[in-house]
Specification:
The structure holds two protein chains of two kinds.
Chain A (H helix, E strand, L loop, with lengths): L1 E6 L3 H11 L1 E9 L2 E7 L17 H4 L3 E8 L6 E3 L7 E6 L1 H15 L5 H8 L1 E6 L25 E5 L3 E6 L2 H9 L7 H17 L11 H7 L4 H9 L5 H4 L7 E7 L5 E8 L20 H13 L1 H6 L9 H5 L6 H11 L2
Helix pairs in contact in A: 8-10
Chain B lengths: L1 H17 L3 E6 L5 H7 L4 H8 L1 E5 L11 E7 L5 H13 E7 L1 H5 L11 H9 L22 E3 L6 H13 L10 H7 L47 H7 L4 H12 L11
Parallel strand pairs in B: 1-2, 1-3, 3-4, 4-5
The chains are: A alpha/beta, B alpha/beta.
């Protein structure tokens, strides 16, 4: 285990030095209590205290719109070229919920057939986490899924211990960076302060719905026909916000575009959402999830049941984005509480 | 062998240039702003003109064409008997008809006329001799003739015009995105208008404009028409969460979408 420290006054130096090596993206205030990861070159631009950003950092690993390949139909046999532009970049001040989200996507995209676009991008992304010492707001449910503490998935991890940050170095790349900047090793007093901060979190963060997370898959299995889904479906307006902001939703749509020469073209993929009308509509007009209740149920099952069956892991990271962004007040904690109450 | 090859090659080239599809642009009740979008193509115009022959386009050229059209673009809504007849004649000469711009595809702002008794509104516009001026309830183009392609928007969004043109030239159907504008707006990571305390029609309006207005600080006015299955009941939760008046949302919709009431089942 390797810990270093950075004085808060040196944060600007840290960001500036880092941004000389690669582009740095960090949470920036957008007004109206909204934040977004954007390119920064100094500490002053960064919102070190922020509630989860509009889009999670998955946008750097899997861009909302991405060109997959160029094709040429001039000859009898179509030719295609895949060009991936994966620039080296750093994402700074990533909360533990979003680190968990990236870990989930890593599992999904490492499965065969592997998603090389995702995996190659990931290789070029330097991740710096930032610990939450208190709740961002009442919509989060990170303690329920155990994401209020760091569980890996970063190169460096910052914890605020007053006038300085303790930095956990988790990778060789991280080690090279802090050594290169000449950051001092953490003293035993710093480590004691880190322990105290973590200890305090045990009281600050409590299971938000009072339901044992291990029981959730079973609660869901029993709740397939629950009236909860009708209630949620009646409220849903199918805007797709909940899935687009989710750090673990990864569904996409592929489309080919032909250029005006009618011979060459390109293939793109764009984030898609199981909540919108065309998602499960197939040729002939049949829609496999015509009812909004079925679409919402599907979304919840993808987070709490199917993912646990397949990857042994909750795909809800507890970030609370779906609740915050829902215009119709569909609240994840309330849905889970009602579902759990029914299965008793 | 050799001669045969040359024979097939030489004539293949000449008719190719001559066989470019004949494309014409026509306008009805509108501001002609969508035509302006075509002239605003910039460099893209050269590529488009490489693929088609523009034979009529009142705003840009003075030539006329008396043959058949491969593709016609219709702008504007149909608001009097004369326009209906003229549109039907154009349709009869066109292989493919594209309605473009909100006025043409959904009736657009001209549809606001339909909120009044026809004679009442005629009188207010034309005065006491209003009967001398022909006027009917506003119709979208598909409410008069068959439409093969729709390009929604006020004005039309340039990348979509080109996409639809390419689909038309290849004879492929073009699916207007049936996602709400929120989807594109969220992908562009805009702060939601509702979070800013402003009512926006994005949740009920068809996407495809890449959230053009909301990405530039304006609300969505619903100019692309409603998604096919908007959640009517759920709007109440939105209205209550953001403390809005239901009439406000309805009035905003009526600005572009009043002609929807003429559609038999609310669908094209």
């Amino acid at each position: 285990m390797n810990y270093h420290i950075l004085m808060k006054g040196e944060l600007d130096m840290f960001v500036k030095k880092l941004s000389k090596k690669m582009k740095v993206y960090a949470p920036v205030a957008k007004g109206f209590s909204n934040f977004a990861f954007e390119e920064v070159s100094s500490a002053g631009e960064i919102a070190m205290e922020y509630i989860p950003t509009i889009l999670p950092p998955k946008k750097y690993f899997m861009p909302p719109r991405e060109k997959m390949l160029d094709f040429d139909l001039t000859e009898g046999k179509p030719k295609d070229t895949a060009n991936l532009d994966a620039e080296k970049l750093a994402v700074f001040a990533v909360h533990t919920c979003d680190l968990a989200g990236i870990q989930c996507l890593n599992m999904v995209f490492s499965e065969r057939p592997r998603d090389y676009n995702y995996l190659l991008r990931k290789e070029n992304i330097f991740i710096i986490g930032l610990e939450c010492l208190k709740y961002c707001d009442g919509n989060a449910s990170c303690a329920l899924v155990g994401n209020h503490y760091p569980n890996g998935g970063y190169d460096l991890f910052f914890t605020d211990i007053g006038d300085k940050y303790v930095i956990h170095v988790n990778t060789q790349k991280g080690e090279e960076l802090v050594e290169g900047m000449g950051l001092a090793k953490a003293s035993s007093a710093d480590m004691a302060a880190l322990d105290r901060a973590r200890e305090a979190k045990k009281h600050t963060f409590q299971n938000e719905i009072g339901v044992d997370p291990k029981k959730l898959p079973e609660i869901f299995a029993k709740g397939v026909e629950s009236p909860v889904w009708k209630s949620v479906g009646d409220r849903c307006i199918s805007c797709g916000n909940c899935t687009n902001v989710c750090p673990t939703c990864y569904c996409f749509d592929m489309a080919d575009t032909v250029n005006l020469d009618m011979k060459t073209g390109f293939r793109t993929r764009t984030w898609d959402s199981c909540q919108v009308e065309p998602f499960a509509t197939v040729a002939g007009g049949e829609n496999f999830r015509e009812e909004r209740s079925a679409r919402q149920r599907h979304r919840y099952f993808r987070k709490f049941k199917y993912s646990v069956d397949k990857f042994y892991r909750s795909f809800c990271t507890g970030c609370g984005r779906c609740t915050r962004t829902c215009m119709a007040k569909i609240n994840l904690k309330e849905t889970l509480t009602s579902l759990a109450a029914e299965s008793k | 062998m050799k001669t045969a090859k040359n024979d097939t090659k030489a004539p293949a080239k000449a008719p190719k240039a001559a066989a470019k599809p004949k494309v014409a642009f026509f306008d009805f009740a509108c501001c002609e702003g969508c035509q302006l979008q075509i002239t605003n193509f910039g460099e893209l115009l050269l590529d488009v003109l490489g693929a088609v022959d523009v034979v009529e386009f009142r705003e840009a050229i003075s030539e006329k064409w008396d043959g058949d059209y491969d593709v016609v673009f219709i702008e504007g809504s149909i608001a009097d008997h004369h326009a209906e007849e003229r549109l039907k004649k154009i349709r009869a000469r066109a292989k493919v008809l594209i309605a473009y711009g909100s006025c043409a595809t959904i009736g657009g702002v001209n549809g606001m006329k339909n909120s009044f008794e026809l004679d009442e509104i005629r009188q207010s516009v034309y005065g006491k001799d209003y009967k001398l001026f022909d006027s009917t309830a506003t119709k979208a183009v598909h409410q008069v003739v068959k439409v093969d392609y729709f390009i929604h928007g006020c004005p039309v969004y340039i990348p979509e015009i080109v996409e639809v043109l390419k689909h038309a030239l290849r004879g492929l159907p073009y699916n207007v995105p049936d996602n709400p504008v929120c989807v594109e707006c969220k992908l562009n990571e805009n702060v939601c208008m509702y979070e800013r305390g402003i009512a926006c029609l994005g949740p009920w309006t068809k996407a495809g404009c890449n959230s053009w207005c909301t990405s530039n600080g304006n609300i969505c006015y619903g100019c692309r028409g409603e998604v096919t299955n908007p959640a009517k009941n759920a709007a109440n939760d939105v209205i209550s969460k953001y403390n809005l008046k239901p009439e406000l949302i309805k009035n905003k919709f009526d600005m572009y979408n009043k002609c929807k009431e003429n559609d038999a089942n609310g669908k094209h």
